[in-house]
Amino acid sequence: MSIYMYFTKDELACRCGCGKGQGDMNGDFMAKLVLMRRNSGVPMNVTSAIRCPNHNNIVSSTGFDGPHTTGRAVDVKIYGERALIIIEHAIKVGMTGIGIKQKGSREERFIHIDDLLFGPRPWIWSY
């Protein structure tokens, strides 16, 4: 089973065009993500994965570092019942950070998933 199964290079690339991409994702994290996708049976539309420090500083309150800069986080555009299924499977595979934005239009809704080990973990929050 490939650690990139189900996910495209474009989905995993930094959105600023800097060149950080699929190969910069953490292998252990990707193995968990693939397991989540396979076991849940739910498609996962990744809207943000690896981020360079500059891009992360622009789009995130974590500044120049944070889980996306380490290749250990993704944001998945999802809502409703499928969001709940993804959260359940994230917990089962050992993801330690789950951020939930399920208000606003369906296009704005997402789940953040990471497996960081520092800070208060496991942790769940809302946007």
Structure characteristics:
127 residues, alpha+beta, Muramoyl-pentapeptide Carboxypeptidase, domain 2, five-stranded mixed beta sheet, 5 strands
Fold and architecture overview:
It is built from 4 helices and 5 strands. The chain is α+β, with helices and mostly antiparallel strands. It has one domain (9-126): Muramoyl-pentapeptide Carboxypeptidase, domain 2 (2-Layer Sandwich). It has a 5-stranded mixed beta sheet with strand order 1-2-4-3-5, covered by helices on one side. Helix 2 crosses helix 4 (80-92). It starts with 8 loop residues before the first helix and ends with a strand.
In short:
It contains four helices and five strands, in the order ααβαβαβββ.
SSE topology:
Layout lengths: L8 H4 L14 H14 L4 E4 L4 H7 L13 E5 L2 H13 L4 E5 L8 E5 L8 E4 L1
Parallel strand pairs: 3-5
Antiparallel strand pairs: 1-2, 2-4, 3-4
Q: Number of folding domains?
A: 1
Rg, Å, rounded: 13 Å
Encode the helix/strand succession as letters. HHEHEHEEE
Taking the alpha carbons of the first and last residues, their distance comes to 33 Å
Overall CATH architecture: 2-Layer Sandwich
Helical amount: 25-40%
* CATH C-level class: Alpha Beta
Q: Report the β-strand fraction as a percent range.
A: 15-25%
Q: Determine the number of helices (DSSP H or I, runs of at least 4 residues).
A: 4
Strand order of the largest sheet: 1-2-4-3-5
Low-confidence stretches: none
Which structural class do you get from the secondary structure elements? alpha+beta
Overall mean pLDDT: 96
Q: Looking at CATH, which topology would you report?
A: Muramoyl-pentapeptide Carboxypeptidase, domain 2
